[in-house]
Amino acid sequence: MARECQSAVDRFLMLDDDALTGQCEVDHYRASGPGGQKRNKTSTAVRLRHRPTGLVVTAADDRSQRVNTVRAVRRLRQAIALHVRTTVDPGSYRCTARLESSVTSGGAIRISQRNPHYHPVVCEILDLIKACNARVSEAAECIGISTGHLVAFCRRDPKLWECVNRMRTEVGNKTLR
What we know:
The chain has helices at about 10-15, 15-20, 35-40, 65-85, 95-100, 120-130, 135-145, 145-155, 160-170; strands at about 25-30, 45-50, 55-60. By secondary structure, the chain is mostly helical.
């Protein structure tokens, strides 16, 4: 069965911010550290617990609760993409339209981290890498691009790079450099 059907993870990542926050237990608390009296007296820090996945993220960078909520939702999307895997069969795998549209005519993957499809693309790539026993060359072949282009895409996002190398280490492969 091809991967074209949308997984639960894809659906989480494509929800708007309000709907994704609606799946979470939201805690507001006082952040510690510098920031003056406002930071010490008001609950501006935000913690999101995503009930379906069990992931927890926090944001306490700003003195504004609204800004911290936006940051926490962004971090939750990233955490879902990096840590929640869907089973893929490399033999019958077909790129989703999102990933396909991110591949340039030269074979590179080009998608901005601000693009709403960025995290679903990252998730799809990680699912495929995991299905290929963390062999990036096999995953690149399934996508129809070179290994170098896939490695270059992963290297641009430090958390993605770390996740790929962790997958490789878990199955006994050398880390990518």
